[in-house]
């Protein structure tokens, strides 16, 4: 390519960088810098975050642990977690629903797990599912550090599509009054239909889905709006530390299979 042609494209490149600068910063923080630090430290970012929590947070205080993770994500390494804005929405919805049994698909580092567990009614139970064993190990330690025992929060390591069919028989979950989908948006529709097919959603159950706008779950949203079995509402938010990148939490209320 000649210098003249390259210069001709320069204004376009500059325009794209300015317009999509927030996405470019997100890419740098979540992929490039994270990969470099993983190589240099020999630890995953979630493991580094937990080490920070151990030295800065108060054991047995879920709120302080959550605040410490927020500080780590804002000032150290971007955690790609739910964050405080979405967290307030999640806690409010859990408190309103007061589920006897809740299910989370996608534990990740345990941030949203702590949010749900804090908001459960007395005697409430949470099952949380994480497919990656190494990430699950970090989450397990974080959950126990916050003071939640296995009777309140049980972490299951496995693929959601394999765990859901076994929830009733192996984990004694006959119904999930509240479900949080926070794993992979492309799996939301499949897993929602699995929950329906195994009769794990009672009438009136609340299904919450994170990241439905970014990176997005269009097939899931289309199904929820068109199948006639859900009342749908979208809570608009931005990504933690990147408010210009719009995202949202979908709130579905299950009307039943009839």
> What kind of sheet is the major sheet?
7 strands, mixed
In round numbers, the mean pLDDT is 93
Q: Helix tally? A: 12
**Whole-number radius of gyration?**
20 Å
Distance from N terminus to C terminus (CA atoms, Å) equals 63 Å
- The outline comes out as globular
Structural class: alpha/beta
Low-confidence stretches: none
Q: Percent of residues in beta strands?
A: 15-25%
Helix content percent band: 40-55%
- Total number of strands: 7
**What strand line-up does the widest sheet have?**
3-2-1-4-5-7-6
Helix and strand element order: HHHHHEHEHEHHEHEHHEE
Summarize the structure in words.
This protein is an alpha/beta fold and 258 residues long. It has helices spanning 3-19, 21-41, 45-56, 62-75, 83-97, 111-119, 133-145, 160-163, 167-170, 188-197, 212-216, 218-226, and strands at 101-105, 125-130, 153-157, 178-181, 206-209, 230-239, 242-254. It has a 7-stranded mixed β-sheet, with helices on both faces. Strand 6 (230-239) and strand 7 (242-254) form a beta hairpin. Helix 3 (45-56) crosses helix 4, helix 3 packs parallel to helix 7 (133-145) and helix 5 (83-97) runs parallel beside helix 6 (111-119). The longest helix has 21 residues, at 21-41. The radius of gyration is 20 Å and the shape is globular. The protein starts with a helix and ends with a strand. The mean pLDDT is 93.
């Amino acid at each position: 390519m000649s210098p003249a042609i390259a210069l001709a494209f320069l204004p376009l490149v500059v325009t794209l960088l300015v317009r999509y600068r927030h996405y470019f910063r997100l890419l740098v923080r979540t992929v490039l810098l994270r990969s470099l630090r993983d190589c240099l430290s020999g630890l995953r970012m979630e493991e580094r975050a937990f080490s920070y929590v151990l030295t800065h947070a108060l054991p047995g205080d879920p709120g302080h642990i959550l605040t410490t993770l927020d500080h780590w994500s804002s000032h150290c390494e971007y955690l790609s977690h739910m964050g405080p804005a979405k967290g307030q929405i999640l806690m409010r919805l859990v408190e309103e629903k007061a589920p006897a049994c809740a299910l989370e698909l996608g534990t990740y580092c345990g941030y949203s797990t702590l949010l749900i567990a804090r908001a459960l009614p007395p005697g409430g139970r949470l099952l949380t599912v994480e497919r990656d064993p190494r990430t699950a190990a970090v989450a397990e330690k974080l959950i126990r550090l916050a003071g939640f025992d296995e009777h309140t929060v049980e972490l299951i390591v496995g693929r959601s599509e394999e765990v859901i069919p076994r929830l009733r028989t192996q984990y004694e979950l006959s119904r999930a009054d509240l479900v949080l989908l926070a794993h992979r948006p492309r799996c939301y529709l499949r897993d929602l239909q699995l929950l329906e097919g195994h009769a794990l959603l009672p009438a009136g159950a609340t299904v919450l889905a994170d990241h439905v706008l970014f990176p997005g779950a269009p097939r899931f949203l289309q199904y929820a709006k068109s199948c006639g079995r859900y009342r749908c509402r979208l809570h608009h938010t931005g990504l933690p530390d990147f408010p210009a990148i719009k995202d949202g939490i979908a709130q579905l209320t299950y009307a039943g299979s009839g």
